[in-house]
UniProtKB/TrEMBL annotation:
This is Biotin/lipoyl-containing protein. It comes from Saccharopolyspora griseoalba. Keywords: Acyltransferase, Lipoyl, Transferase. It holds the Pfam family Biotin_lipoyl. It comes from the Bacteria. The keyword ATP-binding does not apply. The lineage of its organism: Bacteria, Bacillati, Actinomycetota, Actinomycetes, Pseudonocardiales.
């Protein structure tokens, strides 16, 4: 087992912080990837953030009503290690980027 911390993601449009309206999980809960995790409020709207992975919620870093900045720890999960390292993608599974070079016109 390993721990993986999920930070507050960039919510777009220049938003740098958010308030926790309501936690939809509690410490000790088991969550599946994409299960509802938390409701956040920004200066522009309210948004529900889904769980980024499957695992047990081991720590909620901010209480309901609290504020945090983008990149601050939001929640920590206890997860099963896969392929030896949590959160990495083996090279043979990594997305491939294709670049097409176009020669300059004379």
């Amino acid at each position: 087992m390993a721990e993986a911390t999920f930070p507050l993601p960039d919510l777009g449009e220049g938003l740098i912080s958010a308030h926790v309206l309501e936690w939809l999980v509690a410490e000790g809960d088991w969550v599946e990837r994409n299960d509802p995790l938390v409701e956040l409020e920004t200066t522009k709207s309210s948004v529900e953030i889904p769980s980024p992975q499957t695992g047990r919620v081991s720590k909620l870093h901010v209480a309901a009503g609290g504020e945090l900045d983008v990149g601050d720890p939001l929640v920590t999960f206890t997860v099963e290690e896969q392929a030896g390292i949590v959160g990495t993608v083996p090279e043979d599974r990594a997305p491939q980027r294709r670049v097409r070079l176009i020669p300059p016109e004379d």
